[in-house]
Protein 1
Amino acid sequence: MTHDVAGAWERFGRDDPYFRFLNAARYHTAGEPRSVRDELFASGEAHVDALIETIRSELVPGFEPHRALDFGCGVGRVLLPIARRAHEVLGAPCRA
């Protein structure tokens, strides 16, 4: 049996991109209505805020991201908030 992982992710991205990242029924059909899509992207903002706050409180006080890599960036739910906070960002799709 062969597994076409890259092909599967291509289909997910084409057919139902938002559902694949937050697996909830309301994210089917490309995030319609717009408020649902906005909710999905707001969750990325909250995730990045929490991550940076954890880094600052537990590891590096005053941390400011300079460069970041989002491996498997998909629709940009996390990539876009990182790009607003870092000087340089690279989004790399996951390829198997």
Protein 2
Amino acid sequence: MFGESVAYDGLAAGMHTLELRNVKGTVYIDKFTLKNGSSNASPTSGPGATAGSTNTISAAQNVVKSVNVDSNTSAIAFMAESSSGLPIRLIMVDPSGAIVKTAEAVNGVAVIEMPTTQTGTYLVKVVNLNLGPVQVFTAATPLLNR
């Protein structure tokens, strides 16, 4: 059906579930519109503040970035983008000093996303794999439990 509209008036406050069941043949749903609805729910997790900076890294050198993780942090996303798509490598080190993840740039962008297993300071080494200097923008965003 096209342009179908259904009203559910007089619903009591609280959680409600809308369930669609296909009883015969193929069904395509293009859009739902909720009118006059509201919610006071809040997500159990969400992104924290993103910290970003730009550095110039000399040939075959690196820069180290730190990401502080507390007990409310469940994951980290770290991104680095090199100027002109030049190759770089990311190396993530956990608070105990172990290398936990690496990433190579694809078209100048390298990303590490991972759950955090302990609190403390994680280090991310951004390595310039070029014969000349490269400018690199980095950004780190924690996923916080709320």
Protein 3
Amino acid sequence: MPIKIGIVDFDSSHCVEFTKRLNHSGIAEEQWVDGAHVVMGCPGTSQLSPERIPGFTEEMRKLGVALTDKPEEMIGKVDAVMIESVDGSVHRERARPFLEAGVPCYVDKPFACSLADARAMVALAQRHHLPTFSASSLRFAPEVVEFVAHSAAEKSKTGKILGATVYGPAPTHARNPGLFHYGIHPTEVLFTLMGPECEMLTCVQVGGERGTETTGVDVVTGEWSGGRVASVRGIRSGRADYGFLAYCENGVFPVSIGTQFIYRELLKRVVRTFEVHEPPIDPSETLAIVAFIETALASGRAGGKPQRLATTSS
């Protein structure tokens, strides 16, 4: 039997795009993901993009998803829940009743907009022996997965990754400040390449007024364990594609990242997590990403002053 999934909050296109792929409806077969079916959803409310909810609600209804006004009404009727609020600051509130009821959750990016909220969600999930999983779909782009696997292989052409420069669009919103909004995508790619052991960082904001969310670009450079250095460039003006330069033992390798199959690849991991209760990313790495972005905000507002990352332990 397919896993029965409920979706909470319809202010992101992910509610529709994920349902199409899981329910094998309205999308090419090459995008289908097996093993789960979206059976219920709660449109919810939004302080970030409320105008999107009616249209996505109608699309979800056409996809055959049963709707409810209260997310808690899904408890007992679904096996797992996907929290799809585009506003990361509400994720702790949205996930809490499900985790307390023993319902595993996938929490879409950003996992949280504060390290305190992120720690609380991880602790609650661990207390109830549930998997905690959040990720940008860019992390699972085939180009990223293949490069990381190749660099780790014995006698690889690239050798080990010593550093990286990752770039991508980073429009922001007051409720998802700094890189928490779209900048989460290149940030997750950075951690996929480098691992979670970032110890210190500096955030340089260029264009617009420093210390605000109107800058044209954020460049965050971190120092990882073992003397490795890597940076993420969050672009807010001009064309912004996804990609990275990997500085490796045997050369420098440019990689462009496509987006055609990223939702499919993410959903494969989501379904697998619900099946075996083992997430593809350790919660400690998710906490490290939240700490990285929170610390980058502090550095940017301090004019680029270097900052040590907060501990991610609860």
